[in-house]
Design brief:
The chain is α+β, with helices and mostly antiparallel strands and about 625 residues long. The chain folds into five domains: about 110 residues, Beta-Lactamase, CATH 3.30.450; about 110 residues, 2-Layer Sandwich (Beta-Lactamase), CATH 3.30.450.20; about 170 residues, Rossmann fold, CATH 3.40.50; about 55 residues, Helicase, Ruva Protein, domain 3, CATH 1.10.8.60; about 45 residues. It is built from 21 helices and 22 strands. Helix 16 crosses helix 18. The longest helix is centred in the first third of the chain and has 44 residues.
Length: about 625
């Protein structure tokens, strides 16, 4: 008997189980068997729509329908239906095209998998119980013989091992299992071990034996490997275990299963600690990234986002020169006293250039020892010299595709200047200890606080290297020659210092500003920044208090201050020129420069020649 539209009932005659005849074009069920009505809980299936009864993503149904029409028939377990009360039905669906009814009509035969599994379990249980006492005794005898034959091996094993018969009753337990579980053989033998050691999940949720993979081993004759579950000890504490459950046969008869398990509590705890540590590392990494972003923002803020502060003619000229040269690949040589912002100018040129997407590689000549400068510039391979334990690219190679900024060009040893020039002209570099040449595509920006013409005359700089780099010169004027830039610089530096110190910004009076503008600033902007920060610390009462030494009180370094060789050289040059000016250009004689310096005239003549001084100086 079918339930449907009269014109279509005949197509379901002889249909087995829940069956639907469906017109996909109109999404209508044309006819349904009583089994289908019972499965869906709806006696009025015929004439209703099919799509609301599909529980899964409807794309799975579309894929299945396409396969039915392509092959004429198909089956799937990926489509689930739902009852009128929205209860999900796990099904196996068999579909067959029905062209004799209509081009879009298919026949769906539905098998309720939950009911099928239930019937299978009942049949298996009936078969086992039907064997009665004889089968129980045979299974018991089999396990007893197995235990007797393998007792020594079982008790020597480090893993826990126990056996269950087809009723789930324990048949043997080895020594390791007893030690791990805290149960004795007397506690477990002949009893339902699942209810004793496997009854609940770690969450406290009840663990029915029907869902237990161990029971499934002898009910469905399959080997199950489980990597993370819990067994419960006699004292009520859980232990994490991994186990393998294997069905056991006596001849052709399935009589039970053997379970081999291992306590992984310590390993799981270590893994948990590792996961926690990794999460903590991840959190710290995120925190450091945020701090780095903040610091980068602070650095950019401190550098005024590469804006050069000031409105003097000298500053406007530098900015104009940056705008002219930045978009080119021309080499730039920046000169000026220490603290005048040569690095700032170099960064501005790089950041406005097409190479800004690559980092600017910074080489500070005075920060590297003469012995290490060659490796620092050109790189080396492992074993090139003592201590070269790994390959290391040099600054030239790292700057490939970007910009190389050589700060304090005059500090590069003379014998390395020629190799540097050759490398830049050839546009390829060879690491120390290697013959392979690596191509270079870089732009060079160099900076120095020295008088390069004098350095060339004194034999400390190669003229050809200076000419190669000095394609586009930019000179940073000292602060004493542009006092009109001190007010905007002081205001900007005070704002940054107060922000960094977490203090309110004090007022800068006109008197204080005049005092700042009268000072000679031998340390230039760097010294101004230090004075402003020191003043921000000591100022109280809302007004900026500045403590600087006037030009009539020359700066004296502390006994513990250290000078670089370049600074000592600059002091020696400045002092010699000052003595020559004081003596009117005379070297010898009672009022000559040699007498003022307290040295012999021949010594001073040698020094003048060595320093490359001329009458112009």
């Amino acid at each position: 008997m079918t339930v449907g539209l009269p014109a279509y009932d005949s197509y379901l005659v002889g249909a087995f189980g829940p069956t639907l005849l469906v017109d996909l074009g109109s999404d209508r069920i044309l006819a349904a068997t009583p089994g289908a009505a019972q499965l869906f809980g709806d006696d009025a299936l015929a004439g209703s729509r099919l799509s609301p009864r599909v529980a899964t993503d409807f794309t799975q149904m579309i894929v299945f329908i396409d396969e039915v029409f392509h092959r004429q028939e198909a089956w799937t377990r990926r489509v689930a239906f739902q009852t009128t009360t929205s209860q999900r039905l796990i099904c196996e669906v068999h579909g067959r095209a029905m062209p004799q009814v209509g081009g879009d009509v298919i026949l769906l035969n539905i098998i309720d998998l939950a009911a099928l599994n239930d019937r299978t379990e009942r049949a298996e249980a009936a078969r086992m119980y039907g064997g009665g006492l004889l089968e129980w005794q045979r299974a018991q005898a089999f396990f007893s013989e197995l235990e007797r034959q393998n007792q020594l091996i079982l008790n020597a094993a480090g893993e826990g091992i126990y056996g269950v018969n087809a009723d789930g009753k324990t048949t043997f337990v080895n020594r390791a299992a007893q030690e791990m579980l805290g149960w004795t053989t007397e506690d477990l033998l002949g009893r339902d071990i699942h209810n004793m050691i496997h009854h609940h999940h770690l969450s406290g949720e009840v663990y029915p034996s029907q869902q237990c993979p161990i029971y499934q081993s002898f009910r469905f004759e399959q080997v199950n490997r489980i990597e993370d579950e819990v067994f419960w000890r006699k004292d009520g504490k859980p232990i994490r275990v991994e186990y393998v459950s294997t069905p056991i046969y006596e001849g052709q008869v399935l009589v039970g299963a053997v379970v081999i398990f291992r306590d992984i509590t310590e390993r799981w705890e270590n893994e948990r600690k590792l996961r926690d540590a990794m999460e903590e590392v991840g959190a710290l990494r995120d925190s450091l990234m945020q701090e780095n972003a903040y610091l980068q923002e602070a650095i950019n803020d401190e550098r005024a986002h590469h804006d050069i502060i000031g409105h003097s003619g000298a500053v406007r000229q530098v900015i104009a020169q940056i705008d002219l040269v930045a978009r080119t690949d021309t080499n730039v040589l920046i000169t000026g006293e220490n603290g005048t912002g040569k690095s700032l100018v170099a960064s501005a040129i790089h950041n406005e250039s097409p190479r800004s997407r690559r980092p600017m590689i910074h080489l500070k000549g005075g920060a590297v020892s003469p012995d290490a400068i060659e490796s620092e510039l050109f790189g080396h391979v492992r074993g090139a010299f003592g201590g070269a334990l790994r390959d290391k690219p040099g600054k030239l190679e790292l700057a490939h595709g970007g910009t190389l900024f050589i700060d304090e060009l005059g500090d590069i040893p003379f014998d390395q200047q020629g190799k540097l020039l050759e490398t830049l002209q050839r546009r390829s570099v060879t690491r120390l200890g290697e013959d392979r040449e690596r191509s270079l595509d870089l732009r060079v920006i160099a900076a120095t606080g020295r008088n390069l013409e004098r350095e060339v005359q004194a034999g400390r700089m190669r003229q050809d290297l200076v000419l190669f780099l000095n394609v586009f010169p930019i000179h940073c004027t000292p602060l004493r020659d542009r006092p009109e830039d001190i007010p905007p610089l002081a205001s900007h530096l005070l704002k940054l210092a107060c922000k960094r110190l977490g203090r309110n910004q004090p007022i800068v009076t006109e008197g204080i500003m005049r005092q700042l503008q009268r000072y000679d600033w031998p340390g230039n902007v760097r010294e101004l920044a230090n004075v402003i920060e020191r003043s921000a610390i000591v100022s109280r009462g809302g007004k900026l208090v500045v403590d600087i030494r006037t030009p009539s009180q020359p700066s004296v370094r502390g006994a513990t201050a250290l000078l670089t060789e370049a600074e000592v050289e600059q002091i020696r040059i400045a002092n010699t020129i000052a003595c020559l000016k004081e003596a009117g250009g005379r070297v010898s004689g009672p009022n000559g420069a040699a007498a003022l310096l307290g040295v012999r005239p021949t010594t001073l003549y040698s020094r003048i020649q060595k320093l490359g001084l001329s009458s112009r100086d």
